[in-house]
Design goal:
Helix content: under 10%
Order of helices and strands: EEEEEEEEEEE
Number of helices: 0
Radius of gyration: 13 Å
Strand content: over 45%
Shape: globular
Largest sheet: 7 strands, mixed
Structural class: mainly beta
Oligomer: single chain
């Protein structure tokens, strides 16, 4: 069973940037589609971005298109989320997730989740 550990969250001013990382244990990382979700206080967990196992295809929520970039390094068993032009409404706990199939925004499709990393954007 793969395990996921996120890092890179923090406090940033509006307009700033952060890069989140998600390190996966195990030797099956390259067979998994990966995604980032986020959950703000009092709200449901929502899809942010996803990437296929090869990294050849990506998908984004409309709210982050053009500002966030998901990428992966299969040699390092790591998926990244580069977040630019951050807004206060991006404040949330960010989770990475893994799936054996690619249905980007379907939350129930993801069987493995990390513990989350807090991102706070001040205005």
């Amino acid at each position: 069973q793969v395990q996921l550990v996120e890092s890179g969250g923090g406090l940033v001013q509006a307009g700033g940037s952060l890069r989140l990382s998600c390190a996966a244990s195990g030797r099956t990382f390259s067979t998994l589609s990966m995604a980032w979700f986020r959950q703000a206080p009092g709200k449901e967990r929502e899809f942010v971005a996803a990437i296929t196992k090869s990294g050849g295809s990506t998908d984004y929520a409309d709210s982050v298109k053009g500002r966030f970039t998901i990428s992966r390094d299969n040699a390092k068993n790591t998926v990244y989320l580069q977040m630019n032009s951050l807004k206060p409404e991006d404040t949330a706990v960010y989770y990475c997730a893994a799936s054996t199939v690619y249905h980007p925004s379907l939350r129930r499709n993801y069987g493995v989740w990390g513990q989350g990393t807090q991102v706070t954007v001040s205005s």
